[in-house]
UniProtKB/TrEMBL annotation:
InterPro entries: Aminotransferase_I/II_large, AspAT/PAT-like, NHTrfase_class1_PyrdxlP-BS, PyrdxlP-dep_Trfase, PyrdxlP-dep_Trfase_major. GO terms for molecular function: pyridoxal phosphate binding; transaminase activity. This is Aminotransferase. It is an enzyme of class 2 (transferase). Its cofactor is pyridoxal 5'-phosphate. It comes from Weissella jogaejeotgali. Gene3D superfamilies: Type I PLP-dependent aspartate aminotransferase-like (Major domain). Keywords: Aminotransferase, Pyridoxal phosphate, Transferase. Its EC number is 2.6.1.-. Residues 37-385 form the Aminotransferase class I/classII large domain. The keyword Membrane does not apply. Belongs to the class-I pyridoxal-phosphate-dependent aminotransferase family. It comes from the Bacteria.
């Protein structure tokens, strides 16, 4: 182990030093030390990437695609993203040359958008409970986060939006993630149109993280890029839709004047996304339109299985309209301190779930269950949860 020079103690970015590590990873790492634990903590598809996508990557490697690509992504992939968004979600046709950046996952797209489009002290409205990454990235960019607690229905209503804007009239933007991580809740087109009227009136920039758009169960996903394109930067990718989380291909699209800045921020972070991975994403968007359909049907069955088991164990939960999470309320007859609850659950019956409070205000007293796991594992998880309830009553 190398000891740091005493003179260099404290040599770091003070804002970053005050930012906590990913709380989901912290919990997951602790659970990983428990032998025999069944973890439903991380949001990652349990499917393998489709074979035709893997073969496209292999062909690209064999063709010696080992050099720099254009910083904003190869043009065929940017064209495919433009076509895909029009054909799948009825968005405007984004110009591949000026309005699309291919990134290393949606997380990098979020970082680039925040760095490019905000100044220190700008206010960003983030509905909670939400994915913790948004706030940590905002903090490192010195963006002031305005939390909007959406519990208990986990929807931003016009009333809630008007209220937060009255209290924060200088807010510059709002982040909308739907279907939601951690709740699985999503929005109907009518609900979004009500919000759009307010957003247009206040000229708020919208950062729309729609990474789970292909995993909507009860209706077609409605994109903010269709309803309010002139004020929206859309962030998405192929990680969740095509089980390509490890391949790390995301993208950001929006009006050219905004994307010019996002593209510069992206370029300052890395030279380019990897060529073979972009070849895989191109295959996914050109020839893999049916891949998410098959996975979605399985996820829907798993959702219903877990909801049924939770109800039998005494838990209540908003019915997820998409993604692969259930945000369940801990019943009053158990310890409703969600942090204490999940650690006791892990110790007692070796079942790992995420505590709701790590997702921000409104998450206290809840747990997040990822049902991106095999049916066998989910059935075992419900059995363990019921056993825990029996032990605790």
């Amino acid at each position: 182990m190398v000891e740091l020079s005493a003179a260099l103690e404290g040599q770091c970015n003070k804002v970053l030093a005050a930012t906590v590590p990913s709380p989901i990873r912290v919990v997951d790492d602790k659970f990983s030390q428990i032998d025999g634990i069944l973890k439903l903590t991380l949001g990652e598809p349990d499917f393998a990437a489709p074979e035709h996508i893997k073969q496209a990557i292999i062909r690209d490697v064999q063709a010696n695609d080992s050099h720099y690509s254009p910083s904003q992504g190869i043009m065929p992939l940017r064209e495919a993203i433009s076509d895909y968004l029009v054909e799948r979600f009825d968005t405007p046709r984004y110009d591949p040359a000026t309005e699309i950046s291919v990134t290393v996952g949606a997380a990098e797209a979020i970082n680039a958008a925040f760095q490019a489009l905000f100044n220190p002290g700008d206010e960003l409205i983030i509905p909670t409970p939400t994915f913790p990454l948004y706030e940590s990235v905002a903090q490192t960019s010195d963006i002031k986060v305005v939390g909007l607690n959406t519990a208990p229905d986990f929807i931003v209503t016009p009333e809630k939006l008007k209220h937060v804007l009255a209290e924060h009239p200088n807010a510059k933007a709002i982040l909308l993630n739907y279907p939601s991580n951690p709740t699985g809740v999503t929005y109907s087109e009518d609900e979004l149109k009500e919000l759009v009227a307010i957003l247009r009136e206040h000229q708020l920039l919208v950062i729309a993280d729609e990474i789970y758009a292909e995993l909507v169960y009860d209706a077609k996903h409605t994109s903010m890029a269709r309803l309010l394109p002139e004020q929206t930067v859309l962030i998405s990718g192929v990680s969740k839709s095509h089980a390509m989380t490890g391949y790390r291909i995301g993208y950001a699209v929006g009006p050219a004047k905004l994307m010019k800045q996002v593209g510069k921020a992206h370029q300052s972070m890395l030279a380019t996304a990897p060529g073979p991975m972009m070849a895989g994403a191109l295959e996914a968007l050109r020839n893999g339109r049916e891949d998410p359909v098959k996975m979605r049907a399985v996820y829907e069955e798993r959702r219903d299985l877990v909801l049924k088991g939770l109800a039998e164990a005494g838990f209540t939960a908003a019915r997820p309209g998409g993604a692969f999470y259930i945000f369940a309320k801990i019943p009053e007859f158990l310890n409703t301190n969600d942090i204490e609850f999940v650690y006791d659950l892990a110790d007692s019956v070796k079942l790992g779930v995420a505590p709701g409070s790590i997702f921000g205000a409104g998450g206290e007293g809840y747990i997040r269950i990822s049902y991106a796991a095999s049916t066998e594992d989910l059935e075992s998880a419900i059995t363990r949860l019921k056993h825990y309830v029996d032990l605790t009553r």
